[in-house]
Amino acid sequence: MDSYTQALKFLFDQLPCYQRQGGAVLKFDLSNIESFVNRLNNPHKKIKTIHVAGTNGKGSVSHIIASILQSKGLRVGIYSSPHLIDFRERIKINGEYISEKYILDFVNCHYDFMRSKTLSFFEMTVGLAFDYFNNQQVDIAVIEVGMGGRLDATNIINPEISIITNIGFDHTEFLGNSFSKIANEKAGIIKKGVPVLIGEYNPETALVFKRKAKDLESQITFSEESTKKYKSDLIALYQQKNLNTAINAIKLLPDFNVSDTEIDSAILKVKEPTNFIGRWDVIGVNPKIVADVTHNIEGFKFMIDQLEKEDYQKLHFVLGFVKEKDVKSIMKLLPSNASYYLCSPSIERALPLEELSCLAEAYTASHSSHTSVFNALNAAKENSKPDDLIIVSGSTFVVAEII
Fold this sequence. Notes:
By secondary structure, the chain is α/β, with parallel strands linked by helices. The protein has 17 helices and 14 strands. The chain has helices at residues 4-14, 18-21, 31-39, 58-70, 100-116, 121-135, 172-175, 179-186, 203-215, 239-252, 260-266, 271-274, 297-307, 327-333, 353-363, 373-382, 396-402; strands spanning 49-53, 76-79, 91-93, 96-97, 140-144, 161-164, 196-198, 220-222, 281-284, 288-291, 315-319, 339-342, 366-369, 389-393.
C-alpha cells in the first residue's frame, strides 16, 4: 500500500467492523489475537499494563489514570475505543496519536497474515497498539476493554492491576440480560495473583467478583464512596465517580508511588495532556451546547443528575442512537418537557429515524426529525434562546459528526 488512506481503508472496509455494522460481525474467540501477537513476538508481554473494563466510565478512568502517571514524567500509552474523529485517537502515548506512517508500515508488514487469518478490525488494532507501545518503550500502557472482558481481544495481557468500573445493561445481546451474567463476562479480566479494583459496589455483582478473585487468589478491593469534591477539567457530575475509581486504582498500583498532592494536581487537567474528547464538552455558548457520548440507560441516569445542577431556561436534545440500545427506556427517563431534535448518525448500524420518531412520540411533547445530525443541531440552535441548553448525545457517532 502506498498511503495511510489505503491502509485505513483496509482496516475499515476490507474486514467487518462491529462499530459500523453491529453484532453480526463479532467473533468471541481469543485464538486469532493470540496467533497475531505471537507473530509480533508477544509485545504485550514486554510492557507493563493496566486493564480497564466496565459498562460506563472506562474511557474516563483510563485517561484519568494516564494523566496522573504522565504527571510523574512517565511515558504512558492509552488504547481505547471507539474513536470520534481520527482513528489514531485509539492509540496514544502521552496524548500524542500514533503516526500515520507507523500504521501504514504495520499494515504493509502484516497485510498477508491479517488477510489470511481474516482478523477482525478489533484484533488488528489491538495487535497494532501492543506493537507500537513496545516499540516506543512506554513505561506503562492503559488498555481499555472493547466489550465485555472474558473474550475481548485485549484480554491476553497480564496487567499490574485489573479495574472494573461498574456493571450496567449494555450489549445485553452478547453479555447477558442480568447483572450477574454481565459481571461474569467482565470478571474474565481478573488474572491469577493480580489485584482487582471494582469501581462500584453492587451486592449481586460483588458475589461474582469475590468468587472469581478468590479462585484466582487475587486481592479484590471495592472503591469506597468518597465525599471529597474532586477539582478537575472533567466537569460533569458523573466524573466524580470516575475520578474516585481512578485514584483508588493508582493507590493500589504496585511500584508507582504517587502522593495525594500529586494526584490532586494531575487531575486538574486531564483532557489536554491525554487528548481526551467527547465527555460533557462545551462546544458552544449562548445557548450553551454540550456534546456527550452517553449512549445507555446508566449513562443517561448520570446525565439527569447533571442536568439538575445546570442553569438554563429551556432544554433541547439532539439525539441519535444505534440499533442495539434500549432507546425506549432512555426516552422514558428523559424530561418530557424538553424539545427533541431526532437524527441518525451516518453509519449502517444507526437506528432508523422512523423508529426513533415512533419511540419519541410516546414520551415527548415536542420533537422533530432531521435528515442529518448537522441539520438537527441547526434546528435546535434556531429554536433556542441565549439562556437555553442544548445537549448532543445518544451515540459516539452523533457526537463525532458534531465535533
